[in-house]
Structures are given as structure tokens and as C-alpha cells.
Design a protein that fits this description.
The strands form six sheets. This protein has a five-stranded mixed β-sheet with strand order 5-4-13-8-9. Strands 6, 7, 10, 11 and 12 form a five-stranded antiparallel β-sheet that branches. The protein has about 375 residues and is mainly β. About 10% of the residues lie in helices and about 35% in strands. The structure holds the ligand Nc1nc2c(c(=O)[nH]1)N[C@H]1C(S)=C(S)[C@@H](COP(=O)(O)O)O[C@H]1N2 and molybdenum atom. Ligand MTE binds next to strand 3.
């Protein structure tokens, strides 16, 4: 277990809670960046199954996990709608259950790799996971409420509350066009189990192909508006330059726009950095994803990018899920090697060699590299 520098000072009562978290939740497979609020990262080597188990799935919360009562939960839908709704969980479930595998990645996943260093939780590669989400289609509920023409955005609010008086509430705006996508779900189950408190019990949004910041947890209020929310989490956070900027440069707010779609990306899961392997066949594997476009290919290089070999893509696939890949390298000569992996999606987008700088360190998708040692025998 690693306690990140971002961990909040803990009171005595909190300490016992933290100790329990370490023992029960991590078993060495979660990196604890903070316990209150909960910021847990999955170690990359545990991302070796197509479905990420719930207890290993990363957690990213800006505020403390609210205690929610599913039996008395109400989802309110108001603002620019013909018929405001207040739905209990049972009434929601009557809209018809759908299950969809989808990858969830935090906008700040990979922030730790940016140079110069940027402020924020120093996520490595593990603020990502793939799960089967069960719920109802958001658009079915919106159709029932009847969105008026001025309803351009959904203002999404969950039951979590700011930790201090100066802290803004976590409120996000989703454009109606995306909300009407049949894959956007109001979910109450994750991998067949009732959502856990950390992952948004009893109700959260699933926005396949878009970054985690849209996947609002503990969702209880949707307000249709004609403009994007003016609060911190839309106007300041989760924005990146629409023009290229120099690393470390300040960016004019007019040149920033909300980060939405995920980028094409792959990570190397095996071997892990620093591994010593005997000469011979070395199995290299990992995961690749994009924002909903299929992964066309993943290529692996073991010679500093001079030559690239096609990896084999795994059989498990779904539009918004990741795709596993595998390549067996014949390591003939002992030495120190840098293994690289590069994914390309069906639109031709490929991972870059160097990062696109943005002041908050979002959407890191540079070609992944892992150094290993091939030994004589
Ligand atoms: N209400 C609420 N929803 C939230 C958040 C939050 O802090 N509050 N964090 C968001 C962010 S930034 C991410 S990456 C995902 C993480 O989902 P997880 O904790 O289930 O992995 O939840 C999103 N939903
Ligand atoms: Mo996030």
C-alpha cells in the first residue's frame, strides 16, 4: 500500500477507518492516494481481466461518500421539461433493464507522467477499469419527462456534499445530444452487484466513450437548462486547450474547452517494469481502448521504435469496452529492453510519441513503455 502525498490529514476516528480500508480493500492491488475522500488506483498488473472486479476497480471521489438510502431514493428531473418527474428506484427500474460493458477512465489518468509536474491526484495508469453496468436508458426517462427545446444541457448533481464551505459542489453538464445516446445509462448495478457506496450507490450515470467526470455518482437531480453550468467543475476543472500550447505554459481561459471523449490508448500490463526474464519467449500483454471506435491494431516494439510487430487482439470485445492484446516476443539476446505498445483505432487515430500539454494533466495517452531485463538463462 502506498499513501499518496495528496492524503488528507486524518483524525483518530478516521485512522481506524483507514486501517480497515487498507486491510480489506487493497490486498496490495489498490494504491491509496487518499482515504477521505476516496481516491484509489488499481495497480496496473491487476488490470489483467477483461472485466475489472469491483473490489479492484479504481475510485475517484472529490468529496466524502454520502450515506444513501436506496429505499427512499428519488431521482428528480426538472427544469426545461414538459413534465417534471420524481422517480423512486422501483419506478426507474420499470423503464426496462439494460446491461452494457463499458470502460470508465478518469480524465486525470496518467497525470503523474506529465512534465513539468501538474497539481492534482498523481494517478499512474490505473484510474481505469472495464465493467458491466446495468440500469435503464437515460433517454427513455428524458422522453417521459419531455425535454423542451430550450433544454440543451442536463445539469447533473449527486448527493455528495462539499467538504468545506469554500469548496464547490460537484455539478456536471451533459449536452442533450449525448444524453439521448442509447448507450447512456442510469445504472444501479456494476458487474451484477448492487453499486457499492464508493461507486455511486444507489444510482450513477454511465456515459460510454466520455471521461469519468461525466459519470456522476449518487445521482439525484437532473435539471434541463439552456447553458452549461457556471460552477467550478464545468468552468474551471476538466477543461483543456483547444490549441497546442507549450509544456508548462499558462493558457487563456477562452482557449479552453471541456474534455469529453476518451483518447485512443493502450497500456502494457505484462511484463511489469523491472521484470527479469530468461532468454526465449516473452509474453507481452495489455489493454487498448478508444472513445467508442474499434481498436484496429496494437503494435509492439522491442527495439526503441525502429520496428513494430502486430499484437493479437483478444476475443472479448464490445463497442465501449477495452480490447486486450498479446504478443509473444522471442528475446534472443540478454540485455535491457524498452518495450513499447501503440494502439490505432478504426478512424486512424494512433497514440502519440509525446504528450499534448494541458495545464491539468488530462488524457495522457502517450505510447506506453516498460523496461525489462532479459537474462542469459
Ligand atoms: N457525485 C460525484 N460523481 C462523480 C465524482 C464525484 O466526485 N462526485 N467523481 C467523478 C470522477 S472524476 C470519476 S473519474 C468517476 C470515478 O468513478 P468510480 O469512483 O466509480 O471509479 O466518478 C465521477 N463521478
Ligand atoms: Mo476523474
Amino acid at each position: 500500500m502506498i499513501v499518496g502525498a495528496g492524503a488528507l490529514p486524518l483524525g483518530l476516528a478516521d485512522m481506524s477507518w483507514a486501517a480497515q480500508t487498507e486491510a480489506d480493500q487493497t490486498k496490495g492491488k489498490l494504491i491509496i492516494h487518499s482515504t477521505r475522500p476516496e481516491d484509489f488506483e488499481t495497480v496496473v498488473e491487476a488490470l489483467d481481466s477483461w472485466i475489472t472486479p469491483n473490489d479492484l476497480f479504481f475510485v475517484r471521489s472529490h468529496m466524502y461518500t454520502p450515506s444513501a438510502d436506496g429505499a427512499n431514493w428519488k431521482l428528480k428531473i426538472g427544469g426545461a421539461v414538459e413534465k417534471p418527474l420524481e422517480l423512486s428506484m422501483d419506478q426507474l427500474k420499470a423503464f426496462g433493464e439494460v446491461t452494457l460493458p463499458a470502460l470508465l477512465e478518469c480524465t486525470g489518468n496518467g497525470r503523474a507522467f506529465h512534465e513539468p509536474r501538474v497539481a492534482g491526484v498523481q494517478w499512474g495508469h490505473g484510474a481505469v477499469g472495464n465493467a458491466r453496468w446495468t440500469g435503464v436508458r437515460l433517454r427513455d426517462v428524458l422522453k417521459k419527462a419531455g425535454v423542451k427545446p430550450q433544454g440543451k444541457y442536463l445539469t447533473l448533481d449527486g448527493a455528495d456534499k462539499p467538504i468545506t464551505k469554500v469548496m464547490p459542489d460537484f455539478i456536471r453538464s451533459l449536452p442533450v445530444e449525448k444524453a439521448m445516446d442509447e448507450h447512456v445509462l442510469l445504472a444501479y448495478k456494476m458487474n451484477g452487484e448492487t453499486l457499492s457506496p464508493s461507486h455511486g450507490y444507489p444510482l450513477r450515470l454511465i456515459v460510454p466513450g466520455w471521461t469519468g467526470a461525466y459519470w456522476v455518482k449518487w445521482l439525484n437531480t437532473i435539471t434541463l437548462t439552456d447553458h452549461e453550468d457556471e460552477g467550478f467543475f464545468m468552468k474551471t476543472a476538466y477543461r483543456a486547450p483547444k490549441i497546442p500550447v507549450a509544456p508548462g505554459a499558462d493558457v487563456n481561459p477562452q482557449d479552453m474547452e471541456p474534455v469529453k471523449e476518451l483518447q485512443v490508448k493502450s497500456i502494457i500490463v505484462r511484463p511489469t517494469p523491472g521484470t527479469k526474464v530468461p532468454r526465449g519467449a516473452v509474453k507481452i500483454m495489455g489493454a487498448a481502448w478508444s472513445s467508442g471506435d474499434a481498436i484496429a491494431r496494437v503494435e509492439v516494439s522491442t527495439d526503441m521504435g525502429r520496428t513494430w510487430q502486430r499484437a493479437e487482439l483478444g476475443k472479448d470485445q464490445a463497442r465501449y469496452a477495452w480490447r486486450f492484446w498479446e504478443y509473444t516476443w522471442k528475446a534472443d539476446r540478454p540485455g535491457s529492453y524498452l518495450i513499447m505498445a501503440r494502439a490505432t483505432d478504426s478512424t486512424g487515430r494512433a497514440q502519440p510519441i509525446s504528450p499534448t500539454w494541458n495545464p491539468s494533466g488530462y488524457l495522457w495517452n502517450v505510447i506506453d513503455k516498460v523496461r525489462i531485463h532479459v537474462e542469459a538463462s
